[in-house]
Input
Amino acid sequence: DAGVTQSPTHLIKTRGQHVTLRCSPISGHKSVSWYQQVLGQGPQFIFQYYEKEERGRGNFPDRFSARQFPNYSSELNVNALLLGDSALYLCASSFGLALADTQYFGPGTRLTVL
Amino acid sequence: RKEVEQDPGPFNVPEGATVAFNCTYSNSASQSFFWYRQDCRKEPKLLMSVYSSGNEDGRFTAQLNRASQYISLLIRDSKLSDSATYLCVVRVTDSWGKFQFGAGTQVVVTP
Output
């Protein structure tokens, strides 16, 4: 079975540009979460979606937005990119929202903002 | 104070030795606990869930101490392939179950 997939794997943008990152969850999983991980830190929560609805939002500015599609895939959008947005962006899927549900991560998109 | 704190290490461990490290959490409403492993520039991968009674998976043992609000991970008979960063993860019931990650503990197993 395919795991979580993300695209693109690497991306280079300049300040002020916009970026869209994509994620496909494991088949059967209905929840997708997005994380930002900068070097030397653990992943920081950005969004969680379940059944196409936003269920949680982390402490990120409004430049960050996301959505989930009927097939449970998801997009993360970041507007007006800043140098500090350079990071590994991870998507994780889980079956649902139960506390025991574990999250499985995709390989990530490495974003570099110049 | 960070919600989930870990000793960043590195823990330098001779091959075959035992290493243990803790993770403390601040929210008493935390209900689910996990250890993830992350190799350099790769995604985190689930190592094990942590249950109230403690649990073991091969050479790995996880313990939970709710009174003192920490979880621990012990690795026995360390292998070179155990070199990685170990991330502690906590889920809280008062925040729609979001996953809170620690910054990770780096383990380096040496020949």
In short: The first strand of chain A starts at residue 5 and ends at 7.
